[in-house]
Amino acid sequence: LLALFWRHAERIPDRSRGSASPGITGNTPEMFPHWLVEVIALITQDPARHLPDLAFHAGVSPTQLRRAFRRHLGVTPVEYLNRARLERARSLIETTDGTVSEIATRVGLDSLSYFTKRYKEAFGHTPGRHRTRGI
Length: 135
What we know:
Oligomer: single chain
Largest sheet: none
Number of strands: 0
Strand content: under 5%
Structural class: mainly alpha
């Protein structure tokens, strides 16, 4: 479980230092509330989940969830979710034959234009180009 967390945490931009370094605020997963580690695992397993569902599963309010993400990871849950969705989409583009639209929906981003825009911002190219060029 902790390995899954660290794999995603490495990719979160660190706003406090203005770099693309890990978004960890100096805390280790062992210092996180157990429910936060569980939420991170849920996001890793299924990035199509939404904030209210994650908060409900953790037994906390959406506000508490946002505060915990900010405090322990330095990002909002939405930023973390979107990054996890894009990482999952990249993996699906590389390993499946699903259309870009199907993959966007599968990871929880129903707007193809929004998905394409965010994908390009994150990886420097569109999802279609990623597939056709094997990037």
